[in-house]
Design goal:
Family: Belongs to the LRRC3 family.
Protein name: Leucine-rich repeat-containing protein 3
CATH superfamily of the largest domain: Ribonuclease Inhibitor
Structural class: alpha/beta
Distance between the termini: 138 Å
Signal peptide: 1-21
Largest sheet: 6 strands, mixed
CATH topology of the largest domain: Leucine-rich repeat, LRR (right-handed beta-alpha superhelix)
Number of helices: 6
Strand content: 5-15%
CATH architecture of the largest domain: Alpha-Beta Horseshoe
Main location: membrane
Membrane topology: Single-pass membrane protein
Helix content: 25-40%
């Protein structure tokens, strides 16, 4: 009877030990705020809609961290110690996610693939961002929360004058981090093409020089051969 009871309990009804599972607006919410968690719990119920993991010590969002949570609409990961977000961190929930809060962490950079696939409204403020092309693309293409977008500040940047300023202000002033990368890529292509061209020219010069030396040697060999005309001249003289 005990094993039958276990089988009758739906898997999704379990709750992580450090969390509270409640109903919020008719949907399941898992509340794990301020529980000293160092990683995302593995046993989150599959039917969760609202997930609060804020004010913990989580340092990384690994690939497929929420893949089995197909009903998930809101994730709050603010005020953690997140430094790394894998490219496939939000695989499986990108289509249905409406809100993602990553503010107040230690994120310096993030793969643009991890965020640009999301349709959720993003909060990225108060992180020590390194202003670069990928962050610029996220700012232009992702759905950022309008109330927090001005708090995305350049903690480090290619130029000292950008440090400490909101990324939006830097871009409005005419900076283009992706343009600098494109120019570097174009320069690298030109250098490579010049190298190949120089090798081709060197090969042609060597080939022509080798042929000239071969022709000259062949001519010298012919000139050193006995003339066929000389015996004929000697015979006519004898007559």
């Amino acid at each position: 009877a005990f094993f039958c009871l276990l089988l009758c309990i739906p898997w999704g009804s379990s709750c992580p030990p450090s969390c509270q599972c409640t109903q919020r607006a008719g949907a399941k919410a898992v509340l794990c705020s301020s529980q000293h968690l160092e990683e995302i719990p593995k046993d989150i119920p599959r039917d969760v809609v609202f997930l609060k993991l804020d004010a913990n010590s989580i340092t990384r969002i690994p690939s497929n961290a929420f893949r089995h949570l197909s009903h998930l609409e809101e994730i709050d990961l603010s005020r953690n110690a997140i430094e790394k977000i894998d490219r496939a961190a939000f695989r499986g929930v990108a289509a249905g996610l409406r809100s993602l809060d990553l503010s107040g962490n230690r994120i310096r950079s993030i793969p643009k693939e991890a965020l640009l696939a999301l349709k959720a409204r993003l909060r990225l403020a108060n992180n020590p961002w390194h202003c670069e092309c990928s962050l610029q693309e996220v700012l232009w293409e992702a759905r950022l929360d309008p109330d927090s977008v001005r708090d995305i500040t350049c903690h480090t940047a290619p130029r000292q004058e950008y440090v400490g300023k909101p990324l939006l202000q830097v871009l409005d002033a005419g900076a283009d981090f992706c343009g600098a990368r494109q120019r570097s890529a174009d320069a690298a292509v030109l250098v490579t093409m010049f190298g190949w061209f120089a090798m081709l020219v060197a090969y042609v010069v060597c080939y022509v020089r080798h042929n000239r030396e071969g022709s000259r040697g062949h001519g010298d060999q012919l000139s050193s051969l006995p003339s066929a005309q000389a015996p004929a001249d000697a015979s006519s003289t004898a007559l």
